[in-house]
Design goal:
four-stranded antiparallel sheet, about 40% helix, 3 domains, 17 helices, Aspartate Aminotransferase, domain 1, globular, single chain, Aspartate Aminotransferase, domain 2
C-alpha cells in the first residue's frame, strides 16, 4: 500500500483549501463563534480543524471511505488484518474487545488482576464474570509483573469454560509478558487472547523494542496512540487478526460504545502518525532508545538512585522491557516517590509519568531530544540535593502479596449497580465493595466491586492516602469511608 497517503488528513486539508462552510455542527463554525478569551489560550487553529466527521469532510459515502482507507493503511503498517480507530481512548477499545469476546458468555473471561481500571469498567458494563489471573509479585521491591504462560495455563485449567483471556502488556512500568507463550496456551484451547497494549503503540516500528502483540500471536490488540505515539489524547486503535474473533461483532460492539460525534482531529492525527512511523519511525525510535540508554546511565550516577532494568527481567519477573520507560527506585534515599514528584512539579515545573512510595517513572518518547533529557537530569540532581532536607515520608503499610488478593463474591456489575451504603472504613472488613479503589497513576485497581474487603488491603490504602497516594475513584478519596453492598 502507498503509505505516503493520509486520507483523513488530506480531507481536512482539502476542506480548508476549498473554502467550505457548513450549516451543521460544530456550532462554533471553525472558531468564528469562539470567545476571544478561549482562542487567546488555545488559538484558532484547533477550531478550524474541528469539523463534522461524517458528511462534513465530503459527501456521506466519501466520509466513510476516508476512515476505512486510513484504517486499512494502519493495519497494513503493523501487519494486522484489521484496524479500528477510536476517538474515545483505549478505555473504549478494550471494553469493545471484551464484549466481542465474552459478552453474553456464562463462562466469563480470564483477566489479569493487574489490569487497568478501564477493564474493570468493562466488566461492570458487560456483566462479564472475571476469572482472575494472579500476576507475579516481587515482594522485595513491591512491584507486580505480568503473568507467565504457566499461570495462564493454570487459570485455564480452573476455568476451561471462559470465553477468552485478557492480559496487559506492557505494564505501566514498561514490563512485558511472554505474549507468544500465552497466545499458544490460549490457542491450544481454541480461545482468543486480547492484549491491552495501551503503552505499546510504538512497538511495531523497531526491533530493539519488545515484540508487539500481533507479531506474538495475539488475536486482538488495543493501543493508545497518544501514550507513546504522536496522536491527540483519546486516540486509540484496536487491531485484529485470525479467525477467533468476528470482525463484524467487534465493530458492532465498538459502535455501541462509540460517540456518534467523533473528533476528526483525533482521526487525522492517527492517520498522520502512521505515515510518520512507516517513513521515519525506525530512525526516530533508534535515536530515542539511544537517548534513553544515556539517561539511564546518568540517573544511575546520582547517589541513592537505582535505575531498574535487569532487576525487572527473569524467570520470576517479566519477559521483556520497554527501555523508554525509565523506572527509578529511590527507597535508599529515605524519601518517597510522592515527595519527588511533588518537588519536581513545584520547583522545576516538571511532571513525571508515575510515582509511588518508593519509585518514580520518567517516560521518554521519540519526541525527546538532548535538551529535554538534560532538563530531566539537571532537575533530578537538584531534587536529590534538596531531598536531604525532606521530612521522613509517612510510612506505607504494604501487606504480603497474598493479602492483597481479594475474594470475588459478586459480579462487578451486580455490586456496582445494586443497593449500596457508605460506611466508615474501620467497619468495612468483611463487607463487599461496591466501588473500585484505584491508586492513580498507574490506574490498577486494588479493590474491584464485588470483592470482599479485608483489613490488610484497607490499611494499605488508608496509609497510602496519608502518604500521598491519589485515589480518584472512591466517593471519598481520603478513604475514611467506603461504599459497600447493602446486603453482603
Amino acid at each position: 500500500m502507498d503509505h505516503s497517503q493520509t486520507p483523513l488528513l488530506d480531507a481536512v486539508d482539502r476542506y480548508h483549501r476549498e473554502g467550505r462552510y457548513g450549516f451543521t455542527p460544530p456550532g462554533h463554525r471553525q472558531g468564528r463563534g469562539v470567545d476571544a478569551r478561549v482562542t487567546g489560550v488555545l488559538g484558532t487553529e484547533p477550531f478550524r480543524s474541528d469539523l463534522l466527521a461524517s458528511g462534513g469532510l465530503d459527501d456521506r459515502r466519501a466520509s466513510g471511505r476516508f476512515l476505512a482507507q486510513a484504517e486499512s493503511l494502519m493495519a497494513d503498517a503493523v501487519g494486522a488484518s484489521y484496524a479500528f480507530f477510536s476517538t474515545c481512548g483505549s478505555s473504549l477499545s478494550v471494553k469493545a474487545a471484551m464484549m466481542a469476546v465474552a459478552g453474553g458468555s456464562d463462562g466469563g473471561l480470564l483477566v489479569c488482576r493487574d489490569s487497568h481500571k478501564s477493564i474493570v469498567a468493562g466488566l461492570i458494563f458487560s456483566g462479564v464474570q472475571p476469572r482472575w489471573i494472579t500476576p507475579r509479585w516481587d515482594t522485595q521491591r513491591h512491584i507486580s509483573h505480568p503473568p507467565s504462560p504457566e499461570q495462564v495455563e493454570q487459570t485455564w485449567r480452573e476455568h476451561p469454560e471462559a470465553a477468552g483471556a485478557l492480559i496487559v502488556s506492557p505494564s505501566p512500568y514498561g514490563t512485558c509478558a511472554d505474549i507468544g507463550g500465552i497466545a499458544r496456551v490460549c490457542h491450544r484451547r481454541g480461545k482468543p487472547l486480547i492484549v491491552d497494549e495501551a503503552w505499546g503503540a510504538h512497538l511495531p516500528f523497531h526491533e530493539r523494542l519488545p515484540t508487539w502483540a500481533m507479531d506474538a500471536g495475539a488475536d486482538v490488540c488495543v493501543v493508545s496512540v497518544h501514550k507513546m505515539g504522536a496522536g491527540f489524547e483519546q486516540g486509540s486503535v484496536f487491531h485484529l487478526q485470525g479467525i477467533l474473533v468476528d470482525p463484524e461483532r467487534l465493530s458492532a460492539c465498538a459502535d455501541l460504545l462509540m460517540t456518534t460525534s467523533p473528533n476528526v482531529m483525533v482521526y487525522a492525527a492517527m492517520d498522520g502518525w502512521r505515515r510518520q512511523m512507516v517513513e521515519h519511525g525506525h530512525e526516530l525510535l533508534a535515536s530515542a532508545l539511544d537517548l534513553a540508554a544515556g539517561v539511564r546511565s546518568e540517573i544511575a550516577r546520582i547517589p541513592g538512585l537505582e535505575v531498574l532494568e535487569e532487576q525487572l527481567l527473569g524467570v520470576e519477573a517479566s519477559h521483556d522491557l520497554d527501555r523508554l520507560q525509565v523506572l527509578v527506585d529511590i527507597s535508599s534515599t529515605g524519601t518517597s516517590g510522592y515527595q519527588a514528584a511533588d518537588w519536581l512539579r513545584e520547583h522545576k515545573q516538571l511532571d513525571l509519568g508515575m510515582s509511588d512510595h518508593r519509585r518514580f517513572l520518567a517516560t521518554l518518547s521519540f519526541a525527546d531530544r538532548d535538551l529535554t533529557a538534560e532538563r530531566l537530569l539537571s532537575s533530578l540532581v537538584a531534587w536529590r540535593a534538596a531531598a536531604e532536607g525532606f521530612p521522613r515520608p509517612r510510612p506505607l503499610y504494604v501487606p504480603p502479596p497474598r493479602q492483597l488478593e481479594l475474594e470475588s463474591v459478586m459480579l462487578p456489575r451486580d455490586a456496582f449497580f445494586g443497593e449500596v451504603e457508605t460506611i466508615a472504613v474501620e467497619d468495612a472488613p468483611g463487607r463487599v465493595a461496591a466501588e473500585q479503589v484505584t491508586p492513580y497513576p498507574p490506574g490498577i485497581p486494588v479493590v474491584v466491586p464485588g470483592e470482599r474487603l479485608t483489613r490488610p488491603v484497607l490499611d494499605y490504602l488508608r496509609s497510602g492516602a496519608e502518604a500521598g497516594m491519589t485515589l480518584p475513584d472512591p466517593a471519598d478519596p481520603s478513604l475514611r469511608s467506603i461504599r459497600v453492598t447493602a446486603h453482603g
